[in-house]
Amino acid sequence: MKTTPAHNERVRKMKFYSVFPHYVTKVEKKGRTKEELFTVIEWLTGFNEEDLNKLIDEKVTFETFFERATLNPNAHLIKGVVCGYRVEEIDNPLTKKARYLDKLIDELARGKKLESILRKEK
């Protein structure tokens, strides 16, 4: 499924600091912890809690967030549908990374075990 240029632009300009509280609410409402959320984000991006807090304070966009991230080499193992898009078919690199993050957070909120969320090559 192809994303539109307008969709990709919206993702690029989104502010990480404005979305992050929604991630926290989503996982905590389902009985997961903020620490588990930090674990998932760190696995995908390499950012620890301190790094994330700095990025939030800087009010970075998703574009800047993912430019500074070191994407996990196993991120390509993230598959499935999120926000109406099959992540493995998204052609825009930034949008794909943002949807990887969304997918991991969805899995955490749905109660999937951390060992399964933090993918490893088989």
Automatic annotation (TrEMBL):
- InterPro entries on file: SP1917_dom_sf, UCP033199
Q: Which Gene3D superfamilies match?
A: uncharacterized protein sp1917 domain
Superkingdom of origin: Bacteria
Q: Which Pfam families match?
A: DUF2200
Name this protein carries in UniProt:
DUF2200 domain-containing protein
Organism for this UniProt entry: Seonamhaeicola maritimus
Phylogenetic classification of the source organism: Bacteria, Pseudomonadati, Bacteroidota, Flavobacteriia, Flavobacteriales
